[in-house]
Design a protein that fits this description.
heterotrimer, A mainly alpha (301), B mainly alpha (325), C alpha/beta (317), A: 301 residues, mainly alpha, 14 helices, B: 325 residues, 15 helices
């Protein structure tokens, strides 16, 4: 069996890239994301220069209140005298961490469940898809809120896990569809005849064909994870040990400095909105890459 | 008729899902750290009241019996007493529910109609400035962070310009005035509703615009559009009478799919604008550890989402004759 | 004066790969009450002609040269307003794939009534529906199906509804583009028979477009054979069928199976249709022709008259 038949999608990667390059919005999105990534990486720099720039604990000995942007503090300081710019950079780091981990987790979960449902069919399929339907209906934010009421303050990783647990249904539906069509392919039949176990067929044969598709959908998962974490932090239920953009908004809101400190209010909100926008634009460009590939798939059948 | 059977089937689904949620919440609260009694009974209650409540909620019974008492209480509307307000939870819920429904429903209907209308126009001017403007506008507004947008609107329109009130749903002067008629009160509520409604609207209409736009572009390629043109219809008639009704159907579906997202937004909006709805009540009850109230709020919201889903599905079935007949 | 006169019309599409010359130098006439069939393989341009006649070319399509005279007036020079008035009222179309020709969210009766109401403002809704009922009776659809939606109709019924819609304004000319392709053979022959009856009853002119030469030969008095955007043979059906002149026509006739013919008589046509963005010089059929002459590849073929109304586009005569 030729490798090309077994892994058709891996061969289309270069074609996908050339389609992507033509999409203006996608390129803008990519550029913005690179900027944010740089921000995240640079977040380690300010505290290294001077401990007073530490986003969480760094307090400028000479400042104890909100100050507008200055040479010392390019974006000014918050009500405790902490540097806003370094908070913003740290927030970028948290955003990527939360977004990508939640996305990866939900994708792996969604792929496993989707493949199992599509491959096993009948009872297992119905059960899993009904479960998916029920979870899709739930408003993630409010669920996490309730859970934090019951279990107390949640750490950032717990939040990420819960977000992932509520985001897999969307992925699983699509993967299930793909699995259903792949199930009919000759190379699967051949594997069955050769005596491969179900587990092996699913994870060794089907998964490589389905995984690239899943990762392309990752872009949307990332944005919803970032927004959920930001909203949670905004409401005061985030991890108090992490400085995220949502947390920054919570501080400016709750300490009543909203009206006086635009330099504090505006940057975090702009960042959240902009990172969402860039992932969205990237995702739409990915859609264009995705569709012609899928069409080609049908034609080779 | 097919439609009736469909509605019945969906209603049964809603009831089943709601039961599952009820049960999951029951288990959740029993498995949580701390004992169930401290979860459901206000520590500030007197000993006698507390004991009465414990019996009512069945907290002294084995877990199986507790579950049935729990279900029974749900149907009789007995959710315990709020720690924070000291009143029966069910009263608080019934008080807040209409406010949430008012805001939520109005915002969805407004966003959907405007989104569909603008999306139709955008598709018609595809590639030109109007289209680019609308598409980019939709994209940008849709990705704004809702709480932040709310804060900005409060700052600009409430504080700087002072045009709209920035919190609450009513002004006491109007509502306490014995002379004030229904119209005056209604206008007062609407006045307070402008900013929260606008926030929700801005966030949501973009998605519907984009969907309607691409749906129209697809629909305009269909054969029956060619037929309409061949019949000698004007382009405007074709667009509005033949293409748009077909193109709007996916928008209805997307309203249903994004209901969970909308409810999240609703809760955030209520919190920032202190609109006395269930979403805000959930947030504040959680931060105050008011468990009975939090539980009931969540259940209510889940119910609202499920029922809205049902309504949207039925609406779709009604609009698409291929399902109705 | 003939109802329709097409003079040297060329039509092309702007595509990403260049300008596609879909139709080149077509000329023919159609009298009132007469029927004409265009036959050819997919991509030969027959549907394009139908669309151009109705003024329904897509935005990237245009008529490069020639005139289309309908009732003496050049439709290519008409304003949008004028064309809309003619559409359906004088010239109607039965589309390929009638399966999707009806709006799925509107009742069938309403859609047909709409055609009537647009072109005659004196008619009220009630009266229009009454007319639709009569039309239904004419094409053989039960009256009680008037208020149904398209998806409730069977394939044959949908086709009949589309025919009824085409007749709604009592046009003079009907262009039927592969009206029976998606139907099974029995329904197909029923529908074709009904079309013939309707034509006689209303003295309609019909242009029938199909890839199936047997259908065209059955339905039409004149036949036009198209290949690669050009009309390669034109004449009365008897002559074209019994004494085909152009090599393509001959090949077409021999590649269709008949019930009575011998199995060994089936000869497929080798090769592929030429690229219409850069068409070959000389005769476009040359590469697939069974017996090309010395000048076929270089010289553009001209019309050769074989009989009083029978002509062919071939160098070798």
């Amino acid at each position: 069996m030729a490798a090309k038949e077994k892994y058709p999608m891996l061969n289309s990667f270069l074609e996908g890239w050339s389609i992507f390059k033509q999409n203006l919005l996608g390129k803008i999105g990519l550029v913005l994301l690179i900027i944010f990534a740089l921000m995240a990486v640079c977040s380690y720099i300010p505290p290294w220069i001077n401990p007073m720039y530490n986003p969480m604990t760094g307090v400028d000995p000479e400042i104890t209140s909100c100050t507008p942007p200055s040479l010392r503090h390019w974006l000014g300081t918050d009500f405790m005298g902490r540097d806003i710019l370094s908070q913003l950079l740290a927030g970028a780091r948290i955003a990527f961490m939360v977004g990508i981990s939640a996305a990866v987790m939900s994708i792996l979960l969604g792929v496993s469940i989707g493949m199992t449902a599509g491959y096993m069919g009948r009872f297992v399929d119905t059960l899993l898809m009904r479960l998916a339907d029920m979870i899709m209906v739930m408003p993630t934010l409010l669920v996490v809120l309730l859970l934090s009421a019951v279990f107390g303050q949640l750490s950032i990783w717990t939040i990420v896990l819960i977000i992932a647990l509520f985001r897999w249904p969307g992925v699983s539906r699509i993967i299930r569809g793909q699995t259903l069509s792949l199930k009919q392919r000759p190379f699967i039949e051949a594997a069955k005849v050769a005596g491969a176990s179900h587990f092996r067929i699913i994870f060794v044969h089907i998964m490589p064909n389905v995984l690239p598709l899943a990762f392309l959908f990752m872009t949307f998962r990332v944005t919803s994870a970032i927004i959920t974490e930001a909203a949670l932090a905004f409401l005061g239920f985030g991890d108090p040990g992490t400085v995220s953009w949502g947390m920054m908004l919570q501080w400016v809101w709750k300490t009543g400095h909203m009206f006086q400190a635009p330099y504090w209010l505006l940057p975090p909100g702009i960042c959240i909105s902009l990172i969402t926008l860039s992932f969205y634009m990237l995702g739409r460009a990915m859609d264009e890459v995705l569709d012609p590939r899928l069409r080609k798939e049908d034609q080779t059948d | 008729m097919e439609l009736r059977r469909y509605i019945v089937r969906r209603m049964i689904q809603v009831i089943i899902i709601f039961f599952v949620i009820l049960t999951v919440l029951f288990l959740l609260f029993r498995w949580a750290p701390g004992d169930p009694v401290s979860m459901m009974v206000d520590p500030d209650m007197t000993q006698e009241d507390a004991e009465i409540l414990i019996v009512q909620l069945g907290l002294d019974q084995p877990i199986g019996v507790q579950y049935f008492i729990y279900l029974k209480n749900f149907f009789t509307g007995h959710f315990g007493f709020s720690f924070h307000y000291g009143e029966p939870v069910v009263d608080i819920i019934w008080n807040r529910l209409p406010n949430t429904i008012l805001l939520f429903t109005t915002s969805i209907i407004l966003s959907a109609f405007v989104g569909v209308f603008l999306g139709k126009i955008a598709s018609w001017h595809k590639g030109k400035k109007t289209d680019s403007l609308m598409t980019i506008g939709a994209l940008v507004t849709h990705t704004l962070f809702l709480p932040w947008l709310a804060l900005i609107l409060i700052w600009v329109f409430g504080y700087k310009f002072g045009w709209f009130p920035i919190n609450g749903m009513i002004s006491e002067e109007v509502w306490l005035d014995p002379e004030a008629g229904f119209i005056a009160k209604a206008i007062d509520v609407m006045y307070h509703m402008v900013l929260p409604l606008f926030t929700l609207f801005l966030i949501h209409f973009g998605a519907y615009l984009l969907i309607m736009r691409s749906s129209m572009l697809e629909t305009l390629k269909e054969d029956y559009i060619l037929t309409a043109r061949a019949k000698g219809l004007e382009e405007k008639m074709i667009r509005d009478h033949h293409a748009a009704p077909n193109a709007a159907l996916p928008v209805v579906t997307s309203v249903g799919l994004s209901l969970a997202f909308s409810i999240n937004g609703g809760a955030l909006t209520e919190t920032v604008f202190t609109w006395p709805g269930i979403g805000r009540e959930l947030v504040s009850s959680v931060s105050q550890n008011d468990y009975p109230l939090a539980l009931a709020c969540f259940l209510m919201i889940a119910g609202v989402v499920l029922v809205s889903n049902l309504v949207v599905d039925v609406l779709y079935a009604y609009l698409d004759p291929r399902i109705r007949y | 004066m003939a109802l329709l006169e097409v003079e040297n019309v060329s039509i092309g599409y702007n595509t990403k790969k260049g300008y596609l010359k879909a139709v080149e130098g077509i000329s023919f006439t159609l009298e009132e009450g007469a029927s004409l069939g265009f036959v050819g393989e997919s991509g030969c341009g027959k549907t394009t002609i139908g669309m151009a006649l109705m003024g329904l070319l897509p935005p990237n399509g245009s008529v490069r040269e020639g005139r289309i005279l309908f009732e003496g007036k050049n439709t290519l020079r008409m304003s949008d307003e004028e064309i809309r008035k003619i559409r359906w009222r004088k010239m109607a179309m039965i589309f390929q794939a009638a399966m999707n020709a009806l709006n799925p969210v509107q009742r069938v009766g309403n859609q047909i009534a709409e055609a009537i109401l647009i072109h005659d403002s004196s008619v009220g809704k009630e009266e229009a529906m009454g007319q639709v009922e009569d039309l239904f009776e004419l094409v053989g659809i039960p009256r009680d199906r008037l208020r149904d939606y398209p998806h409730q109709y069977s394939g044959g019924m949908k086709q009949r509804a589309v025919i009824a819609m085409a007749l709604a304004c009592h046009p003079k000319l009907i262009i039927a583009d592969e009206p029976t392709t998606a139907l099974d053979v029995i329904v197909q022959s029923q529908i074709l028979g009904e079309i013939k009856d309707l034509q006689k009853e209303f003295n309609l002119s019909i242009i029938f477009i199909s890839h199936d030469i047997s259908i065209v030969a059955d339905m039409c008095k004149d036949i036009g054979v198209m290949y690669a955007g050009q009309l390669v043979e034109f004449g009365p059906r008897k002559e074209v069928f019994e004494s085909p002149s152009h090599p393509y026509t001959k090949a077409l006739l021999s590649s269709f199976p008949t019930v009575t013919g011998k199995k060994s008589d089936l000869i497929p046509i080798p090769g592929e249709t030429p690229n219409l963005v850069v068409p070959p010089t000389g005769c476009r059929f040359c590469d697939r022709c069974s017996g090309p002459g010395p000048s076929c590849k270089t010289e553009t073929p001209a019309w050769v008259e074989i009989g009083p109304r029978h002509k062919t586009l071939c160098c070798r005569r």
